[in-house]
Amino acid sequence: MIEEISETVETDVRLSTAAPVLYENIEESEKKRIQTDINELNRVLGGGVVLGSLVLIGGEPGIGKSTLLLQLSGEFAAKDRKVLYVSGEESLEQIKIRGERIGLKKGDLFLLAETNLERIILQAEKLKPEIFILDSVQTVFSSTLTSSPGTISQVREVAHKVFHFAKTKKVPSFLVGHITKEGSLAGPKALEHMVDVVLYFEGDRDHNHRVLRAFKNRFGSVSELGVFEMRGTGLHAVENPSAFFLKERSREAVGSAVVCTIKGSRPLLAEIQALVSSTLFVGSPRRMTIGLDHYRASMLLAILEKNLGYGFSGEDIYLNVAGGLSLDETASDLGVVVAVISCMKNKPVPPEICVFGEVGLSGEIRSVSQPMARIKEAQSQGFTKIFLPENNLSRIEKREVKGVTLGGVHNVKDTLMNIF
Ligand code: TYD
Ligand code: MG
Questions:
Q1: What does the angle CA 143 – CA 149 – CA 155 come to, to the nearest 5 degrees?
Q2: What are the angstrom distances between the C-alpha of 56 and each of 105, 188, 214?
Q3: Does any ligand 1 atom lie closer than 6 A to the CB of residue 232?
Q4: 64 Cβ below 6 A of ligand 1
Q5: Least confident among 246-250, 304-308, 352-356
Q6: Are 66 and 99 in contact (CB under 8 A)?
Q7: Coil, strand or helix: which one is 129?
Q8: Are 234 and 252 within 8 A, CB to CB?
Q9: 218 alpha carbon – ligand 2 mean position (Å)
Q10: Rounded Cα–Cα distance for residues 7 and 90 (Å)
Q11: Which sequence spans correspond to the domains of the chain?
Q12: Are residues 330 and 368 in contact, defined by beta-carbon separation less than 8 angstroms?
């Protein structure tokens, strides 16, 4: 025990006394990315996995984290890249059964069922894999600590040792972390600051779609989304997320508007739903938003009150983005406004209409980035009428897009007159 402790101290000292390196001699390992064969994963990672990076994948149990990483392992191994997949949760047979189910390709994939961290690192150093996967931080423990697996000190020690392995051996490493509804204390949240990339794998188990999003990424944007569908044969990339998220839209529903937003590097159509109903809580009506910023939504409601003379003080208002998406772009403002008014007026938005634009405090519609990408996406999904900021429209060279009528709008008033 004492020996082990002094050994860690020694390594720490050696680490902290690394000699300074001349700026121009520093290799940009961030540029060295390995493309995985899972494009949706590459996208969320910022264009492939960076050498020596440590990626944490968090999600609720059963969401598909192990499946995703096993698929990743298979694809890698099939290209003669050595992979070590360590599971502290399942036996080798269990993993093989899953592998057969998803048609895992044969290749240089090594599995290890082990829960002792020191032995895991020892094996990893011996095998020298090009990718290292540890499933999960909660089931593995370090024998240098007396606390039980899954406690904060243990999960931190696991992350710390794997981080050290990833950096010194320049091996991209993935850690799985479970998020549990109750005590997520010793879960991914406790590790966010210790790793390079934090990805969350989400979706509800009643639906088949899964969204992979970056929460933190030292090497890329956090707004990218990867969309998958869980089938009997594992996870499959959703080629057309817009169509996917609009699939269940009811075309005659009141309180529903489609917006074209930009998620990371690609445009995405999303349905915003509003429900306005008279409140039982006079004086403090409910405001609920799911997938939209609460403060921004309150501001938009205030703008509508001021500009259109609506009174919302007696109304509960619920706002939701269909399919569990979350929209953080001001370009979706116009969709919120249109959905709320549609519900107030009890009139559906004609199904061929799509909108985007930022709404300013005096009700003006302000221009947003990449209008053409948004228009093309809406066009590809069969929308024939698009309302967008006049300031965007006036700067587009070709004001005609085949089969689509473009309507430039100046303020919330003229938008609503145009639509209803
Ligand atoms: P899993 O990857 O074990 O989840 P996690 O590691 O996040 O706990 O996924 C488990 C669920 O996925 C399980 O309910 C079965 C389902 N599943 C499929 O629907 N199809 C498949 O091909 C596989 C492998 C799993
Ligand atoms: Mg698992």
A1: 90
A2: 24, 7, 10
A3: yes
A4: yes
A5: 246-250
A6: no
A7: coil
A8: no
A9: 25
A10: 31
A11: 30-239, 244-419
A12: yes
Give long-range contacts, CB 8 A cutoff, 24+ apart: 236-245. 237/38, 237/39, 237/40, 238/40, 238/209, 241/266, 241/268, 242/267, 242/268, 242/269, 242/377, 242/380, 242/381, 243/381, 244/209, 244/323, 245/269, 245/270, 245/271, 245/322, 245/323, 245/325
Ligand 2 geometric centre to CA of 173 (Å): 16
pLDDT band at residue 13 under the 50/70/90 scheme: low
pLDDT reported for residue 184: 58
Q: Report how far residue 59's alpha carbon sits from residue 203's, in angstroms, rounded to the nearest whole number.
A: 9
Q: Which residues pair with 301 in a beta bridge?
A: none
User: Rounded to two decimals, what is the model's pTM?
Assistant: 0.84
How many angstroms does the Cα of residue 136 sit away from the middle of ligand 1? 15
Position 240: which residue type? Answer: N
Which distant-in-sequence residues (6+ apart) come within 8 Å of 333 by Cβ? 296, 300, 357, 358, 359
Domain 30-239 has CATH 3.40.50.300: yes
Q: Whose CA is nearest to atom 22 of ligand 1?
A: 234
For residue 33, pLDDT over 80 is answered with yes
Q: What is the pLDDT of residue 300?
A: 97
Ligand nearest to the CA of 59: 1
Go through the chain and tell me how many residues it has.
420
d(CA 366, CA 300): 13
233 CB near ligand 1 (under 6 Å): yes
Q: For residue 178, how far is its CA from the centre of ligand 2 (angstroms)?
A: 8
Q: Is the CB of 230 under 6 A from ligand 1?
A: yes
Pocket test for ligand 1, best of 60, 67, 235 (most atoms within 8 A of CB): 67
For 1-15, 107-121, 229-243, 285-299, which range has the lowest pLDDT when averaged over its residues? 1-15
Confidence of residue 29 (pLDDT cuts 50, 70, 90): low
Residues whose CB is less than 8 angstroms from the CB of residue 415 and which lie 6 or more positions away in sequence, other chains included: 334, 337, 338, 355, 357, 365, 387, 409
Q: CATH assignment of 244-419?
A: 3.30.230.10
170 is written with which tokens?
């320049």
pLDDT confidence of 414, banded at 50, 70, 90? Answer: very high
